[in-house]
C-alpha cells in the first residue's frame, strides 16, 4: 500500500484504445480546477502497480468508467470496477463507443448495466455532456468528499492492525458520527470498514471522556485535601514557631509545606488555564483568583485573569490586573496592547492612545495597535489621522480585515474582499481560460479586488487582484470559486491573548490540500533550556531559508523552505530533552546527523543534530525530562513534527502557553525573521505557518521560482 493517497475528484477507468478521449476529458476537468487520477502507463500488471491503482480509487470521490467494447472486455477494468464497488464508491459509466451485449456478456461487469449512463459518443455534444457530468458530480458533494476522507483514514487504520493510534482525532469524532447517521439512503453508502472505523473512534472518544471526568474528579478531591492540609499545617507551624520547638522539625515542616504549596499552585493554575482554553471564562477567573491568593507574585495569573475578564467584556476589572502586570514587566507588549484596548472600549481615549503608542514603540509592526489607535482617533473625530493609521496597518498586512473594513466604510478604498472557496484556484494573466496560469490560490484565502475590474465573458465572472485574474464563478453559475466577504463592519481589532490562548485545545487548522487537522498541545517543556537558546528559526518562510534554501537543501521540503522549528544555541553539548511523553520510535542516521523519533499518538517528533545519544531502544517510554542526546557542535536542535506521517505541523502549535510564551517573548522582533516581498505577505508571525502535506505542492514565496524551473525543464 502506498505511503500517501493522492486525493482526487475523479478516477477514470478506461481502455488504452480510448486514450485520446480520456485525454480530452482529463484536460476539460483541469480547466475547471478538478483533480483527476488517470493511469497513463501501459505497463504489465504488478503488485506495486495494483496497489497504486487501488489507492487511486480509494482516494477519489467518484469512479468514472469509460464504456467501450474494449473496456468492458478488459479484465483490468473489471477489477477496477469491483474494487470501486467494494469500497462503495460513487460509480458513473460514460458511454464513449457503443457495445454489443452479445459479444461481451461473459466479461462485462454487472454494475455497468445497472447504473445510468452519461453519453459521450462522437455524435453527442461533448461540452453539453460534460456540463451534465459536472452537475452529477456536484450532487451532495460534501457527503461524497467525506466518504472519501473516511475511507482513506479507515484503510490506514485497517492496514496498521486497527491500532488506536490511527483512529479519528478527538475533534473529528462528532462530525464523523453525524455523517454516518445522516448517510442512510445516500449514495455512496458507507462501507462496513468505514462504519467500523467511525464506531471505534466514537467508542475511544467516550472512553477518553470518561477517563478525563474521573481524572478531574480525582484532581478536585486532591486539591481540597491539599488546601485542608495546608491550612492545618500552617496552624501547626505557627504553634511550632511560637514555642520555638526543635529547629530541625520546623525546617522539615517548612519544606513539606513548601512542596504541598507548589503542587497546589500548579494544579490550580493548570485547571484555570484549561477553563480559559475551553471558553469557561467565569470559572477561569475564579481559579486564577485562587492562584493569586496562594501566590500573590504569580504575574502570569494576573495577566490571564485580565484576559478572561476582557473576553467577558469586563474591562474595568481587567484594567487593575493589567496595571499590576505592567508594574512588573513594563515592556510586556501584549499587556500594553490589551490595556489600551480596554481603555478604548470604556471610552478613556487618551489612556488608550498612550498604551498603543508604547506598544508600537516596542513592536512597530503591531498592526492591531495601529488599527485600534486609528479607531480611537476616529471616535475623537480625527478622521485624517485615523485613515493614516488604517492605511499603515494595511501596508504592513494587506489582509488586515478590520483596517480594510474601516477604510472601506470611510470611503477611503474602493476594494472588495473575496474568500477563495476551492483549492488550487488558478491565477491567470488575462480573464480567460486559455490565458497563462501564473499561480494558484488556496481555499480560505481572502483576496482584495478593485471594484471596477469585474469582467464577464463566456467563461464566467472574473476579478483582477494583486496576483492576476481569477474567476468568481462560471457563466452558468455551476461553479463558485470566490464568495464576497459580507461581514464588513467598523471596529477594533480583537484582544491579544498573548499569542498563546489561541484556542489551542479546540482549533482545527486547514492543511495545504484542504484537509482539516485538529491540534492539541503535546509539549510539557522546551527540548532545549531557554537560557541556552540564542536564536530561533521559525517553521517555514524565514529570510534565511528563502535566501539560502537551495544551498542548505531546504528545496527538498514540500513547501520549498525550512521544514521545522530550529532552536539555535551557542552552547555546545547542551542537553536535548524529549519535551513530550511518548514512545521512542526510531534512532538512526540521516547523513552525519543522529536522529531520534518520538511518537505521541498520531504525532511523530523528529529531533535532528544530536550526538552522544543515551542507551535507549525503540519501544521505550520517554518522559518530557528524558535526555535524548546533546547538541552536536553547538549548532541547534531541529524539530520536525509529523502528523500520521503525512503532514508537517508547526511545532509552536503543539506547545501549551507556559512552554511557548517565554520563547515568543524572548524573540519578539518577527520582522527580522520572516521573508516578505511585493508578491508575498503571508506567514509573517510564528503562528501563521500552515500545515504542509509531505510530498504536496511547493507553496510559499519560493514556489513561483521553483515551478518556473520545473516547467522550463519539462519544455
Pick out its properties.
single chain, 715 residues, alpha+beta, 11-stranded antiparallel sheet, 5-stranded parallel sheet, 22 helices, 26 strands, disordered C terminus
Q: Could you describe the 3D structure shown?
A:
With 715 residues, the protein is an alpha+beta fold. Strands 16, 17, 18, 19, 20, 21, 22, 23, 24, 25 and 26 form an eleven-stranded antiparallel β-sheet that branches. It has a five-stranded parallel β-sheet with strand order 2-1-3-4-5, with helices on both faces. A three-stranded antiparallel β-sheet has the order 9-6-13, with no helix packed on it. Strand 14 (508-510) and strand 15 (516-518) form a beta hairpin. Helix 10 packs antiparallel against helix 11 (247-277), helix 17 packs antiparallel against helix 18 and helix 18 (383-396) runs antiparallel to helix 19 (401-409). The longest helix is centred in the first third of the chain and has 52 residues, at 192-243. The two termini are 33 Å apart.
